[in-house]
Amino acid sequence: MDNTEKILNEIDQIKFKDYIPEEFYYLPHNVVTALKRKNLSITAAESLTSGMFQSTVSQVPGASQVFSGGFVTYSDDVKSKLLGIDPKLIEENTVVSAPVAKAMAQQAARVLHADIGVGLTGVAGPDALEGSPVGTVFIGVSNSLSNNVRVKEFHFSGDRNSIRLKSVVAAFVLVEEII
Which residues form the CinA C-terminal domain (predicted)? Predict the structure, then answer.
């Protein structure tokens, strides 16, 4: 098992409550540093995390060199209007799906001319959504320069905020891998 998979497997085992645990503090810094070193830009389209990923990026000193903005696309309608995602894609797959996470990542990067795009969609709770249980999360990451796209499905445990924080940490792990 490579280091990425090891970290992704550990995320759900650690207690998250109101903040990212100390053992993961290095991830946002590492990602921003790597993006700066490679002269890459990043953006995100977030649903269940409502901007938490982007907020975490912007907490790293020097983040403005790699991050100019992104999207909070909580509703299906906004995903279509702001990102240009075909409503049929959402209708056919549900909003909590790998195809939608992939489209969110790719379209966010396309719209803002960013090298790296991140898409986060899922169910933080308290109730299931469109047949997906609480804790189901799909994260898409795309690198437009290498035409590399990765989408991963997660089933996180915990309360609403824990699921959202675990999603943010997992997104940083996936971004680190794709850059």
Answer: 28-177
How sure is the predictor about 30, in pLDDT bands with cuts at 50, 70 and 90?
very high
Q: How far apart are the first and last CA of the chain?
A: 19
Distance between CA atoms of residues 80 and 161, nearest Å: 26
- Beta strands across the sheet bearing 116-122: 71-72, 42-46, 116-122, 136-143, 148-155
- Radius of gyration for the alpha carbons in the chain, expressed in angstroms and rounded: 15
Model confidence at 1: pLDDT above 80: no
Distances (CA, A) of 102 to 10, 23, 85, 106, 153: 24, 28, 10, 6, 11
CB burial of residue 88 (10 Å; 0-12, 13-18, 19+): exposed
Contact assessment for residue 75 and residue 102, using Cβ atoms and an 8 Å cutoff: no
pLDDT digits (tens, 9 = 90+) for 81-91: 999 999 999 99
Q: How much is the pTM?
A: 0.96
Give φ, ψ of 144 to 5 degrees: -70, -25
Count of C-beta atoms within a 10 Å radius of residue 110: 15
**Measured in whole angstroms, how far is the alpha carbon of residue 160 from the centre of its chain?**
16
Domains and CATH numbers, the chain: 3-177 (3.90.950.20)
